[in-house]
Every structure is written in C-alpha cells, then in structure tokens.
Write a structure and sequence with these properties.
717 residues; nine-stranded mixed sheet; five-stranded antiparallel sheet; 10 helices; globular
Length: 717
C-alpha cells in the first residue's frame, strides 16, 4: 500500500553545547563557520577618507594601519565610546561605525544616528539625528547634509530639523525608494542621491496590476495572511518609473523612459557633475538594452549611448563607473563578447575601446589610479576556480597580476590607487590579509589566521574534472572520509545547485566548501559536488546552454558525475542520494522523476516544481514566457511526472517562503496523492533562504536522518 509521511516541524529547540572533538556536532557542521569555528578576520575594512590608512574592526575596537609604514594603532574602542555615554546608554559591544576620516565617524542604534568626533581629549559622542520608527533604506548624501529614507511605501527627506515628504502615494501598492524588479539586474537599492547632494533620484514601482499572493504565517493562532505582489512568468508585471526630486525647488520630474510600461530600468548612474542620469532600458524579453542619457533637470532623453542585443538574453549587472576627474569617460561592464569585460566609453564620442579581453571574465572593478591611468579589477583569468587581482592601463596595455598566491582573492583599493587590501583563502589557507603596494608589489601581512578545523577529522578532497557531452570541462570535488578504505563500499551524497549566479566549486577554505559535507564523510559517506553548465563564472556559452530548457542540460552534466562515481570500485551504486536547495531542489526532484533508477533517496529543499509559478524577471530570462515556450515549460514542470518516482523523496519547504512559494510543493503533493505515490513532506513555518541558528541545525538533522535511514538502514526518522 502506498502511504504518505507528513512532518510539520516547529523550528525551535533546546540549546546545543559546542565542544572541541575530533568529529563535528551537527551544530558545528551547520553553523560552526559562523560561530565557534569561524575563521579569524578583520571586519569592515575601509580606507579612511582619501588616505592610504586602512581601518578595520577586530573584537570590540577599530584599528588603523598606515599602508606606507605598516604601523598599526587603535583608532577607537568600545571603552572610548562608553567613556562619553551616560550610564543608561552605555553599549555592550562596539557598533558598526562608518569613518569619514581618522577624526570623524558615525554609527546607528535603532533609529538614532550618533556622531563621533576626535579632539585633543579623545573621542566625543553626541546625538546626530533620528529618523522615525519604521524608517528603512536610510541613505545619506555624500556631504551628509541630507538624509533620505522610506516610511512604508513613501519617500521622505530630512535636512536639519526639516522633514520633507517627497512622495505621498495613498495606495500601498505604489512603492517609492526601494529596490525594484525583485532585486534582479544587480539592483540593490532604490534611492540615488546626486554627487552634489541637490537632487534625489528614486524608483517608483506601481504594483497595482500585479495579482495579490498570500503568504500565510502558520506559527501563530489564528494564522495570519500577508498579501504580497508576486508577478509570475507570463503574467502582468509591475511598472517602474524613475523620479528626480530637486531639493532647491521642491519639485519632482520623472524621466521620459518611453516604451512599454513593464520594461526594466537598470544600471542607474549619476554623472559626476550631477547634471545627467544614465539608465539601462531593458525590454521585458530581456534581449535588447539601450543605455540612455537623460537630463536630470527636465527628465528629457538626451540620447542613446549604445545598444546591446542578443538572440538569448542581455543581463546588465553593474552601473557605469566614471574615470577619476572626468564627467564624460566611463567604464561599462558587458558580456557582449561572451565573457564579462570592461569597455571604455565617452558620452560625446561613444565607444572608445575594449579594455580587457580574453576567454575569462572580470568579476569586480576595484577602482583606479588616476595619476597612472590604471584600472584595478578582479577576474578569473588564471582559472575559473580562483579570483586574482590585476591592473591594466586605460588603453588596454600593461595587464599585470598583483597577487602571488593561489586561491580566492578579494581586494579593496585605496583612494590613491597606491595600495590594495588583499584578503585571500585557499584549500590550505583559512585566511591571509595583507596590504599590497600596487607598484612594487611588496606586501605587509595584517592577519594570518589559524586553522579553526585543525583538531577535526577532515576529509580527503579530490579535485575532479569531467567533460560534458560537448567536451566542456566540468569541475567538481569528491570528498572521502579521513579513514577512507578503498576496499570498502560507501554510500554517496551528490550535493548540487547547478543554477545561474552560483558557483559551488572554487579553491577556497574549507576545501570541501561546506562543513555539513565533512560531517557526512565523518559518518561514513562519500560526498560529490560539481558545477554543470548553467552555473556561474564560466562565460555566456556555458551559462546560456540551458536557455529555454531549464533542467535538461544540467541533468546531463550531473549524470556525467554519476557515471564517474559508478566507475569507482568503492562507490555503492545502489546507495546513492542527491540533495539541493531552491534551484538545487528543482534539480533534485527532476533527477528523481526523469532518471528514477539512479538515486535511492533524495531531499529537495524549497524546490521549483513549475517555472510558470516563479517570478517574471528570473524565469523569463532563461525560459522566455510560457506563451512563447510552452514545450520548454511543460518539459520542466514536475507535477505530471510524479508517477515516475521509484526512490525515496522528501520535500522540505518553508510555509512563508516568498521566493519559491509554498504552492510549488503543495501542488506536487496533491499530484502525488492523486497518483498514489509515496512521498515524505517536511514543512516548517519560515523561509528557506534565512533559516539560521538552531532552526537550521534541526532542519539539517532531519535531512541527515533521512539519508541515514534509506542509505544506511538506520531507524526511520
């Protein structure tokens, strides 16, 4: 008889103690890298003003290191701050401080901002200003004379004691000053203050035409319904404008972004002289983008600087970056050649030149050295598995790598361009932080972190390179127990994501990439993970191989990994499991239904089951619309394939997930019931993207128990 197992798990629980043992506790496997096993770090690194002095936080103090002399001093400590605060207002830990220079700074507690100023007697703290309770998206102008924030769905400005309401929309479905287009296209904010501080550009998003979607909070009695706007693929999307408020006149104009109302406005950038605004106008099909230049005063279109088109999709991810001292010359990042590279433009002349070239991609622009006409950037030039730091002249000559060590490097360039904060990690280096002279390449070490995992049984990590059916290299990792015996047969867990904008396999610390993988190897499993086509940082051909057919090419690549695993004499092919979250949950479920003979057990977290139920911007980029690609959507949909299931599948889904909504799993469960298919279903009142702490520990214990039961014959969880 077919049956169903339902578990409604209220995430809460007893405390867990942390201890130093040779094997991880589940708490350490899940949260250890954020808690007792965290790698030592220097937090919030930033250069002070226009100097070559680096400030950073360590413990309850901020320190400053002079790049020229390598001398380090205490900048300000919790003790210094508390000396000037009344007994009732003393802080228990040092707050997150933003430094203007080595003598002025500010921090925020709740809705109050405090100013720090240093004089001959030490640091003084005084109340600076407060914003109303509930204020969000607080943004300061460059001169810190204007404060802009959102309150509910409207935009307000504060200047001294004056509070000015910039918008006054009564309909709460019209939202001002927030990130739009569900944070796609690199959009992370909705307020853009001009460099001179006199104008405020802001997004205005009209969602009235988007259908309401219920998000139910089942953790309270009675349950509470929170309606959100969730535009699904092929349905009506929201409409966005860009307003410009003039502080001096008190008037707002909207840019004349002619075109369909559901087009996307991206890459918003002020010109350095504050006269013009640049906006990338991307059509809803996402295959045509125009970079337009608008007059801020009138909102009128001045001209289109350039246009990018594709037979698949164009995906702008970055604003313009103007060269130092210029109001006309800027760098634009584009994937038009197949890899993300830097292109130099001039607002009068248009295209000037391509600055970086090659079968590799730029991942970050760190800044400039204006005196030497140099651009500093990070890239995958050496290997897609690492990030390294480079400089190149504006004319494209003199490309030079700045770091000397393998691994994943993150750089922060000083305002002068003479020094670089370089933090890197690799499989055998937990973290090393140094100050690097960008000319001599001499470096001074600020931190060489100890290995927090040195007392634990660590897996053997084997780096694997396989080939896709078209010959494309695929990078993966096989993790074996510390006491691995090649004469034994081991169960295997395949962990995957294989979706856009994520890369699992890199040369970083820990080499496994995840302590839960290591926990599983300590408990008798092999763990395998691989990035197939469709995943990030391999160029457009690699990413766009999945266009209009999500899941198909990705599964073929993951099955190359399965084929490799089955070739190993110590792999038990009858005891293979697969696990993934979000896109990885979609992949996990797809494999169980389309290749039902491969895996004995699977756990799919927050899975997409039908792309027509997912958001417009993401889905239509990779799948077009359900109306124009019905076969692609039908092939990827999983509701009508549940009857193919032969192994054991558990779904995990948060009832309040507003990214992959619960309806995916509910409809899949209904289909399973209709077909009499056995299924385990684990739900919890929460959101799969932000389950942390003890809740995450309980959740991953459930995943582990499930695999143990079906792959190691332990008691039923």
């Amino acid at each position: 008889m077919k049956f169903f197992t339902f578990t409604f798990f209220l995430l809460a629980g007893s405390s867990l103690c942390f201890s130093q043992h040779q094997k991880y506790t589940m708490a350490e496997a899940v949260n250890g890298l954020r808690s007792n096993l965290a790698v030592e770090n220097l937090s919030q690194p930033s250069w002070l003003g226009n100097t070559d002095q680096l400030a950073y936080r360590k413990g309850n103090a901020y320190f400053v290191s002079a790049a020229h002399t390598a001398k380090t001093d205490t900048l300000v400590s919790l003790h210094h701050i508390n000396l000037t605060l009344p007994s009732s207002g003393k802080l228990e830990s040092i707050p997150s401080i933003t430094f203007n220079d080595d003598r002025t700074a500010f921090y925020r507690t709740d809705s109050t901002y405090w100013k720090l100023e240093k004089n001959n007697t030490g640091w003084q703290v005084k109340k600076w200003f407060s914003v109303p309770a509930g204020a969000d998206n607080v943004t300061l102008s460059k001169n810190q004379e204007v404060v802009v924030y959102t309150l509910k769905n409207n935009l307000l400005m504060q200047q001294g004691s004056r509070i000015i309401r910039i918008t006054a929309d009564q309909n709460e479905d019209i939202v001002n000053g927030v990130a739009v287009h569900r944070n796609e296209f690199g959009i992370d904010r909705g307020i853009f203050i001009s460099p001179d501080g006199n104008r405020i550009a802001f997004y205005r998003m009209d969602q009235t035409m988007v259908k309401d979607y219920p998000i139910i909070d089942w953790s309270v009695t009675p349950a509470v319904n929170h309606l959100i706007k969730y535009p699904m693929a092929g349905q009506a999307s929201h409409e966005v404008k860009l307003g410009v408020y003039d502080i001096r006149s008190g008037k707002t104009v909207f840019l004349n972004t002619a075109g369909p109302k559901d087009q996307y406005l991206t890459a918003v950038t002020w010109s350095p002289d504050s006269r013009n605004i640049f906006v990338g106008i991307l059509n809803r099909d996402q295959n045509d983008m125009k970079m337009n230049m608008y007059e801020a005063k009138s909102g009128n279109l001045i001209k289109t600087l350039f246009e990018e088109t594709s037979d698949k999709y164009v995906e702008p991810q970055h604003p313009l970056v103007f060269l130092p001292g210029s109001d006309k010359d800027f760098i634009w990042q584009s994937q038009r050649t197949g890899y993300n590279h830097l292109f130099l433009y001039n607002t009068d002349k248009g295209f000037v030149r391509q600055v970086t070239k090659g079968d590799w991609l730029v991942t970050d622009v760190m800044g400039f050295n204006a005196r030497k006409n140099e651009i500093y950037f990070a890239s995958t030039k050496e290997t897609p598995l690492e990030r390294h730091l480079y400089k190149i002249s504006y004319d494209g000559s003199g490309l030079k790598r700045l770091d000397k060590t393998t691994g994943m490097h993150v750089g922060i360039l000083s305002p002068t361009g003479d020094f670089l904060y370089d933090s890197f990690a690799s499989s055998d280096v937990p973290r090393n932080i140094s100050l690097l002279n960008t000319h001599s390449l001499k470096s001074t070490t600020l931190l060489n972190a100890k290995d927090p995992l040195r007392n634990y049984d660590r897996p053997e990590i084997r780096n694997i390179t396989l080939k896709a059916d078209d010959g494309t290299p695929l990078y993966g990792k096989l993790m074996l127990p510390a006491d691995f015996d090649p004469a034994k047969k081991y169960p295997v867990i395949v962990y995957l994501y294989n979706g856009p904008h994520l890369q699992l396999i890199t040369n970083t610390f820990p080499a496994s990439g995840n302590l839960w993988y290591e926990y599983m190897t300590q408990n008798g499993y092999l763990v395998f993970s691989m990035d197939g086509r469709g995943s990030s940082n391999r160029g457009m051909k690699f990413e766009q191989a999945v266009f209009r057919q999500l899941g198909e090419v990705e599964m073929k690549d993951q099955l190359k990994g399965v084929e490799y695993l089955k070739s190993l004499p110590y792999v038990d092919a009858d005891r293979m499991g697969v696990h993934g979250w979000s896109f990885g949950g979609f992949m996990t479920t797809s494999l169980m239904l389309k290749y039902p003979e491969v895996f004995k057990a699977a756990v799919a977290g927050g899975p997409v089951m039908d792309w027509s139920l997912y958001e417009v911007m993401y889905t239509e980029r990779y799948m077009d619309t359900p109306q124009t690609n019905p076969d692609g959507y039908a092939n990827a949909a999983l509701f009508d394939k549940v009857q193919n299931l032969k192994g054991h599948l558990m779904l995990i889904h948060g009832t309040q997930d507003d990214v992959v909504v619960w309806q995916h799993s509910v409809k899949f469960l209904k289909s399973a019931v209709d077909h009499g298919v056995q299924l385990d279903y684990f739900i919890y009142p929460g959101h799969q993207h932000n389950v942390l702490g003890k809740d995450r520990v309980h959740l991953m214990q459930k995943v582990t128990d499930y695999f143990d039961h079906y792959l190691k014959k332990s008691p039923k969880p």
